[in-house]
């Protein structure tokens, strides 16, 4: 029940006590929980970069100025989809490594990475700490790759700032269950449910939100997608050039 309550009470924290030092035991507990996440065929196609070095974290913030918590949190983790390990296996057995012929291997690795990330979030909250997932590390993905010295076949998916929260946050409302949960087959629903959620979020009045929920995503998907990710995937052998 404690684990269920932790998941139901999840919230994102972006302000951390800079004087709080994460103990080695706490960090290892989080990392161990992350490593125990389920993965396809037990492939564990991810790696975790533990970023403690202040200089590297300053450069991360320089690339992502809207996320200063990457510097001010106790530790910053970068979760990467890692197909380098299986490339080494293919090389050992002297067989072709054909991941660049389709999307399935990449989807598998990203899924494994996301599961490991979520386990880390739950473990962090079980320890009474807070975190924020950082997807914007993909914005300047080539620079991030160079900064973290990532080899080919390794894709940064998301970061995770962890620390002791200094500002309390509320549990954010979620979309109406009818728009998310489907039984047996995908069920159509009325757009009014999305409008209902727009109203809910407007009443929630999170300071950092300047648009209605639906308008935010209409604008986001109207814009051109981040082509840097496409180029990174080609350059790092996920796709054929």
From TrEMBL:
Q: Which Gene3D superfamilies match?
A: NADH Oxidase
Q: Does the keyword Protein transport apply?
A: no
Which domain of life does the protein's organism represent? Answer: Bacteria
Keywords for the protein's UniProt record, in alphabetical order: Flavoprotein, FMN, NADP, Oxidoreductase
Recorded hits in SUPFAM superfamilies, A to Z, give:
FMN-dependent nitroreductase-like (SSF55469)
State whether keyword Oxidoreductase applies. Answer: yes
Q: Which residues form the Nitroreductase domain?
A: 8-164
> What protein family is recorded?
Belongs to the flavin oxidoreductase frp family.
- Return the protein name: Nitroreductase family protein
Q: Which organism is it from?
A: Enterococcus xiangfangensis
């Amino acid at each position: 029940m404690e684990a269920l309550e932790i998941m139901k009470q999840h919230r994102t924290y972006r302000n951390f006590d800079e004087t709080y030092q994460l103990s080695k035991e706490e960090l290892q507990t989080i990392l161990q929980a992350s490593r125990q996440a389920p993965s396809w065929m037990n492939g564990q196609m991810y790696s975790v970069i533990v970023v403690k070095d202040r200089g590297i974290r300053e450069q991360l913030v320089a690339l992502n100025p809207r996320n200063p918590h990457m510097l001010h949190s106790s530790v910053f983790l970068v979760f990467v989809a890692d197909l380098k390990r299986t490339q080494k296996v293919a090389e050992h057995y002297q067989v072709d490594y054909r991941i660049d012929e389709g999307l399935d291997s990449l989807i598998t690795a990203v899924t494994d990475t996301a599961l490991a990330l979520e386990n880390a979030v739950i473990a962090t909250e079980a320890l009474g700490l807070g975190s924020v997932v950082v997807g914007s590390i993909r914005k300047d993905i080539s620079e991030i790759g160079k900064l973290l010295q990532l080899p080919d076949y390794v894709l940064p998916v998301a970061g995770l700032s962890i620390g002791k929260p200094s500002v309390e946050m509320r549990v954010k409302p979620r979309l109406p269950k009818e728009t998310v949960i489907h039984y047996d087959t995908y069920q159509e629903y009325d757009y009014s449910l999305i409008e209902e959620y727009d109203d809910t979020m407007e009443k929630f009045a999170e300071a950092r939100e300047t648009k209605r929920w639906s308008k935010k995503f209409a604008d986001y998907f109207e814009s051109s997608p981040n082509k840097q990710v496409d180029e990174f995937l080609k350059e790092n052998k996920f796709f054929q050039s």
